[in-house]
Design a protein that fits this description.
Layout: E1 3-14, E2 29-30, E3 35-40, E4 44-48, H1 55-62, E5 71-80, E6 89-90, H2 96-102, E7 107-110, H3 114-117, H4 124-129, H5 139-152, H6 158-162, H7 171-183, E8 189-193, H8 201-218, E9 221-226, H9 229-235, E10 238-243, E11 246-252, H10 253-258, H11 263-270, H12 306-309, H13 313-319, E12 327-330, E13 333-339
Parallel strand pairs: 4-9, 4-10, 7-8, 8-9
Antiparallel strand pairs: 1-2, 1-3, 1-5, 5-6, 10-11, 11-13, 12-13
Helix pairs in contact: 7-8
């Protein structure tokens, strides 16, 4: 697999001062723990989990867009492979001046709120033209590319959109503008952080279809951050399930959806309304994601796990110990694995 991005043992903590030392002598709060995944060139990869699991922190740490100086990558690497003939670059250690050349040009972002991502007092035309600010080519060429991309994004009246201000367009239209903006520089990777959260369900499908179609046309890989397993099953190629700062299961979407290994993944899928003809059969996962200060050293899902509650006393003790759950591979797929003490 030709990887465009490899995240290895990434751990992020908050609570540092401007000198990189623990603030006020307090122990920094670690919110992600040895996160590992990789994204192939042109792949649509999803990172899924409940709110508070560390998905957005993981995504923003790739380009080091975390709040400074409080947040810090305390362990691990983010290997970006811009050229398959050259050695990958560790974005976690790259000098800021070099990292700024990667941001927006080689790795782009699409955020949750398009109204906040766009300047309210500047027309869409000017904001899209800013992408080409440092390119030495005739202005007319840029406009023709922009018009073509807007048409591919499903806009019928391209000139009206170009001359509009953000408040004159709907949420779905604005998010499609953000997708076009992210793709104009022909990046290797787009990080889409819950891009449909603020949109209606019908508009969500349109926006994700546009993102998938336009990314596949350009061969751009996509890292989709979401809490919606329904979206994952419909659009992603591979998925990593995250809980309480750790990756608990990874694999091809069909393997994870059809044969979920980790009890948390099974709980997420059991809570999807579309999977139940009788709503009374729908289950919820008891409790909520713990605060990072309450993260256990061992299995962090044990207190909410139905299988752990029904297991033997010996197994319950192991699940609630300080031992990190081992990785287990699926018998029928080498690329499908989960971290759990239970036999799966």
């Amino acid at each position: 697999m030709n990887s465009v991005l490899q995240v290895k043992d990434l751990s992020v903590a908050f609570g540092f001062d401007k000198n990189g030392k623990p603030r006020d002598g307090k122990t920094p709060l670690q919110v992600t723990d040895k996160v590992c995944f990789e994204i192939a060139a042109g792949e649509f990869f999803a990172l899924v989990g409940e709110s508070g699991c560390g998905k957005s922190v993981t995504a923003m740490s790739i380009l080091r867009l975390l709040p400074q100086p409080s947040a810090k990558i305390v362990e691990g690497s983010v290997l970006y492979n811009a050229d398959e003939n050259a050695a990958p670059v560790d974005l976690a250690k790259l000098p800021l001046a070099d990292l700024q050349k990667v941001r927006g040009s080689e790795i782009s972002c699409i955020f949750q709120e398009p109204m906040q991502a766009l300047n309210p007092v500047v027309t869409i035309r000017k904001q899209l033209m800013e992408v080409f600010k440092f390119c030495r080519r005739p202005k007319g060429e840029f406009l023709s590319v922009i018009r073509e991309q807007l048409a591919l994004a499903g806009f019928k009246d391209v000139e009206r959109v170009l001359n509009s201000y953000p408040h004159e367009l709907s949420g779905g239209m604005l998010q499609r503008v953000c997708i076009v903006m992210a793709l104009l520089s022909k990046p290797k990777l787009i990080i889409a952080d819950e891009p449909t959260t603020a949109l209606d369900v019908t508009v969500q499908a349109q926006v994700l279809a546009v993102l998938k179609d336009m990314a596949s046309r350009t061969g751009t890989a996509v890292l989709l951050i979401t809490h919606n397993m329904g979206i994952v099953s419909q659009y992603a190629d591979r998925v990593a399930v995250m809980y309480a700062g750790r990756i608990v299961e990874t694999g091809c979407v069909r393997d994870v959806i059809d044969n979920p290994m980790h009890p948390y993944t099974q709980g997420l899928l059991a809570a999807i309304p579309e999977n139940h003809s009788d709503m009374r059969s729908m289950k919820s996962i008891p409790g909520s994601v713990p605060h990072p200060r309450d993260f256990a050293k061992g299995c962090r899902f044990a207190d909410r796990c139905e299988k752990c509650a029904n297991a033997s006393a010996e197994m319950r003790e192991k699940c609630k110990s300080a031992q990190v759950p081992p990785k287990q591979k699926a018998p029928d797929s080498a690329n499908h694995e989960a971290s759990c003490f239970m036999e799966i």
